[in-house]
Amino acid sequence: MRPLSRRVFAVGAAAALLAGCGGGHRARPSATGRPRDAASAALPSAAPARVLGRSVPVRLQIPAIGVDTPVMRLGLAPDRSVEVPPLTADDRAGWYRHSPTPGQRGPSVLLGHVTVGVHGDGVFRHLVRLRRGDRITARLENGTAAAFTVGSVRTVAKADFPTEAVYGDVDRPELRLITCGGPREGDEYRDNVIVFATLSATTS
User: Fold this and answer.
1) Taking the CA of residue 172 as centre, how many other CA atoms within 13 Å lie in the half-sphere pointing to its CB?
2) Which SS3 state, helix, strand or coil, does residue 53 take?
3) The pLDDT of residue 24
4) Which residue from 17, 149, 190, 204 lies 20 to 30 Å from 23 (Cα-Cα)?
5) Separation between Cα atoms, residue 50 and residue 193, nearest integer Å
């Protein structure tokens, strides 16, 4: 399947989206095609890694917080918000299939729960603990691995979700990890936790 254009990706994506953690916004593309949020400027400036072709992520590994999860594919729900992984005991991360695959140019978006109802903790329960310089590896269907380095971790109110920084066009391979966070109000979380990372290495 050919990826959607970056403009269509930005228009079609919804921002704060995890079921059981509150609703979200619809994404709006930046007028310049580039994210205007300061978070993107916090990404480390390493020598560019080899840009990869399109290959679906099948596993996500984040050693600093003990994550080693299969990755499922997510699309759009009927209301045009991004689908989320089901609330199950074997909680997994999900990749938004209308975003670039990890290692392609642009922001590849992966989502995960912080809690999964009666099943307890979600796969991204410790996402907020990540720090600048931590490593994230996406293993792809074609056997390639794309390693990313965390540039920044932000906790933002859902009402102030930085849509353009998350979904806006960029000219290099980047990664966005999103979950819920902050104070809990009933079954909802007030905030989103967003990890911004940039490609640092690839292996075949």
Assistant:
1) 19
2) coil
3) 38
4) 149
5) 28
* Token pair in block for residue 52: 């990869």
pLDDT tens per residue across span 69-80:
999 999 988 888
**Mean pLDDT calculated for residue range 137-158:** 96
Residue 95 corresponds to which tokens in the numbers above?
């990749």
Query: Hey, where are the domains in the chain?
Result: 6-34+49-203
Which of 25-39, 131-145, 164-178 is predicted with the least confidence, judged by mean pLDDT? 25-39
Q: Is 159 helix (H, G, I), strand (E, B) or coil?
A: helix
* Bridge partners (DSSP) listed for residue 32: none
Strand partners, 71: 93
Reply yes or no on whether the pLDDT at 22 is more than 70: no
- Residue found under tokens 């670039």: 100
CATH for 6-34+49-203, options being 2.60.200.30, 3.40.630.10, 2.60.40.1120, 2.40.260.10:
2.40.260.10
Alpha helical stretches, state H, 141-190? 163-167
pLDDT at residue 185 in the model: 77
**Residue of 23 and 196 predicted with greater confidence:** 196
pLDDT at 27: 35
